[in-house]
Design brief:
Two copies of one chain form a homodimer. The first copy, chain A, is α/β, with parallel strands linked by helices. The first copy, chain A, is built from 15 helices and 24 strands. In chain A, strands 1, 2, 5, 6, 7, 8 and 19 form a seven-stranded mixed beta sheet that branches. In chain A, strand 1, helix 1 and strand 2 (about 30) form a beta-alpha-beta unit. Chain A is globular, with a radius of gyration of 25 Å. The first copy, chain A, starts with a strand and ends in a 22-residue tail after the last helix. The model of chain A is unreliable at about 465-470 (pLDDT under 50). At the A-B interface, helix 3, helix 4, strand 3, strand 4 and helix 5 of A face helix 3, helix 4, strand 3, strand 4 and helix 5 of B.
Amino acid sequence: MKVDTVIVGAGTAGLSALREVRRYTDDFVLVNDGHWGTTCAAVGCMPSKTLIEAANACHRRHDFDEFGIRGAEAVRADIPAVLARVRKMRDGFVKGPEAVPEKLGERAISGRARLLGPGRLDVNGDQIEARAIILAPGSRPVLPGPWRAFGDRILTTDSLFEQVDLPRRIAVIGMGAIGVEIAQALARLGLDVAGFDAVAGLAGIDDNEVLAAFRPLIEAEIALHLGGPAELEDVGGAIRVTGAGGSFEADAVLAAVGRQPNIDDLGLDTLGVPLDDKGMPEIDPATLRVGDLPIFLIGDANGYRPLLHEAADEGHIAGRMAAPGATGTGLCRRTALSIVFSSPQVARVGPPLSELGATQIVSGSADFSKQARARIARTAAGVLRIHAERETGRLLAAEMCVPAAEHLAHLMSLAIEARMTVADMLAMPFYHPVLEEGLRGALRDVAKGVASAGGSDLSDCKAIGHDALD
Amino acid sequence: MKVDTVIVGAGTAGLSALREVRRYTDDFVLVNDGHWGTTCAAVGCMPSKTLIEAANACHRRHDFDEFGIRGAEAVRADIPAVLARVRKMRDGFVKGPEAVPEKLGERAISGRARLLGPGRLDVNGDQIEARAIILAPGSRPVLPGPWRAFGDRILTTDSLFEQVDLPRRIAVIGMGAIGVEIAQALARLGLDVAGFDAVAGLAGIDDNEVLAAFRPLIEAEIALHLGGPAELEDVGGAIRVTGAGGSFEADAVLAAVGRQPNIDDLGLDTLGVPLDDKGMPEIDPATLRVGDLPIFLIGDANGYRPLLHEAADEGHIAGRMAAPGATGTGLCRRTALSIVFSSPQVARVGPPLSELGATQIVSGSADFSKQARARIARTAAGVLRIHAERETGRLLAAEMCVPAAEHLAHLMSLAIEARMTVADMLAMPFYHPVLEEGLRGALRDVAKGVASAGGSDLSDCKAIGHDALD
C-alpha cells in the first residue's frame, strides 16, 4: 500500500494531527493498536477527575459540623458505586474516539505499526509506503518487572478504574502528580492509604517553599514514606511495602511510578538518526520532526510534555509541518502549564524555579493559610509564588499549592503568555472576596523588588476617554 | 478646628483614602458615624459569603447518591449554628477597621459630619475647616416606609445576620445580586423561600440569553414572582406577599430592593454645585471631585460602582487628587467587573451588552450544560457569552452564568484590561479537563466572526528561541 500520510495512534495527538492532515489530503491511513481512544478519556484525566470529585464531596463532611450542618455521621463512600460512576462517565467520554474507525472506513487500520525505514512501515505484516509519517503511539504506565509477581494485587491507572471494589489498605508507589491525586482521593473515600516515593518530592513540585507548604497538608491525610526506594514483600496474603521511615501492609499496590513512551517496538532505529540510551531521537518541539525526515513523533510518545493540551498542539503542529511544501521553523509552543488535582491543587506555570537564573529574578509569595475567602470556605492552605525579571518586572513563572490553583494558574498563564509585567497584571480588577486577591498579594510582593515599579495600579487618565458619573 | 484634610467615613473607601492622605499630611481627621468598619466585613460580602458557603456545602448532599456516597439522609442545616458561624467569622473580619480609632487617637472623631459649605463641616456641633474634604459616608439598605409597620419581621442585610434563628418561610423582595444570593442560600439551608421583583430580571443580568439560561436554574430552587411589584399584607401573624403570578405566606421578609447612598443629610446642597433629583452632584470617576472643589465623594455614597474593589480604588484616587498641588485629569478606572455568588455564579466583565453598539461587535457563546469537567462535578449549567470588535477581534465584554464564574471572569478581566484580541487569548494554554476549556469554546465561537482571524492559536516560531527536546 502507498499513501501520502500515515498517522500511527488514535489518541489525542493522533486525532489532532488527523484534523490537520485532512486539510491537505484524503490519501492517508490512521493505524491504531488496541482500543481506539485517548489515554485521557479512557484511563487518564477523566476517570481520575471523576474519582477525585466523589472523594472531595465525601471529604467535605468533615467541615459540616463547623459550618453548622448536622447529621453527617452516617455519610460514607460506597466504593463499588463510586467506581461504577467513574466507568459510567468514562464510557460517555470515550465515545467520540471510539467512533473514528467507522467514520474513516478503510482508512482506519487496527494493528501495530513498525517503521522499516524512512517512508516505510509494517502494519499487520503488510508494508505501507508513505511520504509523511506521524507517530503518536502514546505511553503506558511503568510497571517494574519484579512487581508482576504480585499479580492482580498490583494496580496501575490502566486497571484501577476497572476494579469492581477496592480492598481497605492501598499502598501507592510513586508520589508524582498521578500518585498524589489518586492516593488522596482513595484516602478521602475512606481507605487506608500510604504513599511511597524514592525521592523526597510530591506532585512534581519544583520549588522547595511550595513543597514545604504542601507536604504537611498531604501528610495529614496519607502516611508518607518519601526519599527511599519501596520494597515489596508477600506476607501471608498482604503485600508489605517498606520504604523511607517504615513499612505498610497493603491489600493492593498502585504503581504510579510514571509512564513510558510506547517507542520500544516502533522501529525508530531504522531511521538512521541518533537515538539516546532510551531509544529516543532528538526532536525540535516547534516542528516535532525526527531529524530532517518527514517523520514526526508527537504526544506522550516523545516524552516532552505528556499532557493532553500539549498532545493536541503537537498533533496540530505535526499535521501542518507534514503538509507537502510546508516550510518554516515550526510553531512556538505555549507557556508550560501543569496542574495536579489534589487538595489543595498544585500548579506550575512557565519554567520551574530551578531553571530560572536566580540572580536576574525577583520573587513574591502569598500565604493562603490566612486568605480570607479560603478561610470562609475552610480551604485556607498553601502558598503561591511568582517570579519576574528584576529589571523589567516581566512575569516569568509561578508555582503554587493553593485552593483553586487550576484557575489561578490559568490567570498566570495568560499573563505570562502575553509577556505582561507585574504592573500590567496589577492593573486588572480583583473582586472581593476572591482567591485572586491572594494572588494579588504575591504580585504586590514581587512589585516591591522590581526596579521599575510605580506607586499606583491605575494609569493616568487621558483628558478624554472616561465617562462622567451622573 | 482647622485641619488640612477631613475624611468622612471609615469604610473601605474612607480607609483607602486615609492611606493616601497620610502620604502627604499628618494634619487630618477621620470622622465616622456609628460603627467603625466596612460594610463588606460587617454586613456585606463576608457574612453573605459565609452563609453561602454553608448553604452550598449542605446542598451538595443531593449529589451524594449519584457520586456513590451513602448515608446523607439525616444531613440538615442547624440554622442557629450556621448563623453563629457567620457572626464568628464576621467578628474576625471586622477587627481591623474597629482598631482604627484607637490607632488614630485624637484624629479619629465619632460623629455625624454635615457640610456647611466648601471647606467647612459641622461635626457634633463643632465646626471644622479643611482645605480638602473626602466624603465616604457609605450606603444603607433601602427599606420602603410602609414595610416598617411589620416590625422585626422585615429583615435587611443589616439585621439578617444578627438573627439567632430564622423562621421557616422567607420572602425575599428584590432579586438583584444580593437578593438572589441570599434567597438561594436560605433555600439550600432548607427554608421555604420565594423571590419577588418588580422587574423580570435576576442578579442584575443584562444579556437576555444569559438571563434565559439562569432563570430556570434558580426557579428549580426558589419560587419566583418576577415582573410586578410586591404587596405586603398581614394575615394572622404571617405576611402575605403578593407579586407577579401569585402570593406567598412568609414568616419573615428580607427587603433586598437595593442600597441608597448616605447623602441625604450630608449638606451637599451647601456646595453651590448642581444636584440631580436625588441630591447627587455630577462626579468624574477619574477624579471623584465634586465640581471644581477640593471635595471628593467616593465609595457607595456616589452610587457609581458600589463594590468593595471600586471603593478602594476611589479612596486611592481621591487621596491622590486631594494632595496639595495635585494636577492631572485623574486615574483611569479599571475594567468593570461584577460577580454574583449564586449557583451557578453570575458575572459580567466590561460594559453590559446593551451598551455595546451591536453593529460593530461579534459575539460568541459556550453552553456549559454539557461542559465535560462540569459534568464530572455535577455542576454543568449555564452559558458564557463573549463580545469583541468585529474588525480587530479586540475583546470588549463578557457575561455569564456558569460554575466558577468568579474565576473565568477574572481571566476575561485581565484580557479585556490588557486590550487583548481573541487571538491573543487563544494563544494561552488551556489545561484539561478544566472549565476554562468552556471559555475557550466561546472564544473560538467569537473568532469565527472576526475579520482578521487566523488558522492557528500558535504563532510561527523564530529560528532561535525554542529548546530542543532531548
